[in-house]
Amino acid sequence: xxxxxxxxxxxxxxxxxxxxxxxxxxxxxxxxxxxxxxxxxxxxxxxxxxxxxxxxxxxxxxxxxxxxxxxxxxxxxxxxxxxxxxxxxxxxxxxxxxxxxxxxxxxxxxxxxxxxxxxxxxxxxxxxxxxxxxxxxxxxxxxxxxxxxxxxxxxxxxxxxxxxxxxxxxxxxxxxxxxxxxxxxxxxxxxxxxxxxxxxxxxxxxxxxxxxxxxxxxxxxxxxxxxxxxxxxxxxxxxxxxxxxxxxxxxxxxxxxxxxxxxxxx
Length: 266
Prior knowledge:
The protein is an alpha+beta fold. The protein is built from four helices and 15 strands. The protein has a single domain, classed as Creatinase/methionine aminopeptidase superfamily (Creatine Amidinohydrolase), CATH 3.90.230.10. Strands 1, 2, 4 and 5 form a four-stranded antiparallel beta sheet that branches. Helix 1 (17-38) crosses helix 2 and helix 3 (134-152) runs antiparallel to helix 4. 49% of the residues are buried.
């Protein structure tokens, strides 16, 4: 995308209507899991508590957590140990569930992935722990709206760069920054499908052409300060380089003949 080349869409990224319905079922379960966890986000609850609740909920509904045991691109890091990614305050993503107790005024981004009947679901939302300071509240609101802007910029005949450009323009107009190092992705039978990378910054009318049947995630990560990141020694936890707060919202979407279908609606 960086060089502005317009690439055509590989046919392998196109899902049938039946396959999209399978992905919708998985997305619905992820949405229900996030709604369930939101009721338990409160001071004193640990991120490990939330992880255990999520694991029980997902398995009770006949699915398998896809994050637990996931091996990332960095093969030197151990498999991910949690059912959810629990990212608090300055943690951008991939926060490992632990005995860290939530405190009033924190924000926590919870990312959930499931495998249901052979198809993957993936979604993330940032939740307040009680009342927030004005900057943190604005951060959450702007990030939620940035996802909406990105989805609105998608559709048949559009390009991936249109999504990134819409998100970047909106976020930067509000005085925040968009993370560059982490992206959305194609999704299907695998959590991360090759051939489709969704940047949350960029230029309009560049990148892969969007066609009906494409399914992918849009998941802007927005920081109060710099967009630069740092990965901690555990090989997973990604934090803001300046340790200021970050928020994330994510949906799985399908491109249709008429526009965009959100498969992970809460």
